[in-house]
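We keep the chain:
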Amino acid sequence: MKEKLIILSILICSITVFSQETKTQIISRQNSFINPIIPGGYPDPSICKVDDVFYIVNSSFEYYPGLPIHKSTDLINWELIGYGLHKEEQCTNEVNLVDVQSNGGIHAPTIRYNNGDFYIITTNVYYNEADKTTDFVNFIITAKNPEGPWSDPHVLEGAPGIDPDIFFDDDGKVWYVGTHSPEKPNFPGEGEIWLQEIDVENWKLIGERNYLWRGACGGVWAEGPHMYKRNGWYYLMIAEGGTSYNHAMMIAISDTVKGPFIANERNPILTTRHLSYDNWVHSTGHADLIELDDGRWYMVALGIRGDEERSSNMGRETHLVPVQWEKEPFEWKDIKYEWPVVAPQTGKVERFNPVPFTNTSQKRNASFVDNFDYTKLNLAWNFRRVPTKNTYSLSINNGNLRLYTNPNVIKERGRTSLIGFRQTESHFEYQAKMSFHPKYINSEAGISIFQKDDNYFTLTVVKENNQYILQLKLAEPNSKPLILKKQVISNYNKEITFKVKSENHNYSFYYSMNGVEFILLEETKANHILSKGYTGAYFGVYATSNGENSRDYADFDWVNYKGFEKF
């Protein structure tokens, strides 16, 4: 019966999506792909290629497991295959994802392949509340197989800043390309790119440190460097301007890896700073380049869709843009450099684009269904920080996710029984079926749509005295969580199905006691949990005992999400 209801729901959602598209829109999809190529909160993409397979890694900040890795054979259909940080012991020492602050954690990784090994280099940013200092822990993990297992972190001592790059030169040397604040900055926020050799046998920085570049257009927040070598020339590409409307990609060239680097006179090579704030996507940048076997090049870059108030719930997502190289045409120049031209036809990230490879098509799937029929969690599920022991079980009640209550509630730097998967579209329908019969007063369980520790919805059943209460709560930054709706469920029989629907700039919250007939509980505006930080929103399930010690639990039979694309 469970499977039939889920299939019926998916069919209804699919018909709704089809009815929303015009004939023209459907035709425009032929031989085209749609950006973003990896929808949902997957920022700061870095890409590498091994044989015929492409791999992308993204930032994950305070979430666990961290460093999500996707693979593709055509650049437009991507499969989540694992995480670089997938073991608790990787994240409980110098790399601390246990009580890391919101928007801290894992920043801007780089993935590369060399001589049979995959490398990911990245930063963990951890703020120490006691002494008001911030640790920037730069480290490398390695694997033979990108699906894992990945090594424990190799921390590089004496490496300041964030967003490191690892560059394997063709002479066998390995270089760390990093960022930091210069000793004598010209203004607050000025960044500088530096380079130093890495001893990958002993995981140490060695030799002289070289200072390469402070950016091309003011140098505000020069970060996210990537080094490339092409036709004997070294290219240094960086992000600049901050990861908002002024975000941009800059590039410079040198005949040696140590510089000096000469800026492209046509910088920036990618940005939306010259476009309307109402462009369909903005803040494009923090990019990486990849060369195909036939000599063509592409760029992966983050961008923010302007679905709701020039923002979105999904935040920064991964987009794909074509690149071609062009030589400077100026006769008076002794050296005519070649530079990458991003999106050569329009100069911007487009929603619809020609597919990179012939005889391929994009198979977009904006749905996620989990019946919890396996012994391991689906890779899509994430926790906010490393979860506490015995948070959940998939084996005690087969076919269900059992989520245990604990005293913790959602709060900054906290760990509670909250688990979710990424939202991928602004318009959606999310359902979950729960069985919950607590023994203790104040036990609570249900669903959540969450952006941060101070920005979320929860729709839950709460036991108060001898009654079961249905409660909708909203938390927004700089204010206390607010109960939007609260009512007694007179006919509660331990099982309930929740549903949240987003359309026409509104959220509608429903519940059902039989899984068929839904009752509207409340409506709100859709702008309450827009991404304001580095990550996107999640749909999840949640349980708490609100400060009390208990071993109550909720069993979730299934979750069913469907996103509806907007054009």
User: Anything to note?
Assistant: Residues 186 and 439 are 62 Å apart (CA to CA). The first strand starts at residue 32 and ends at 34.
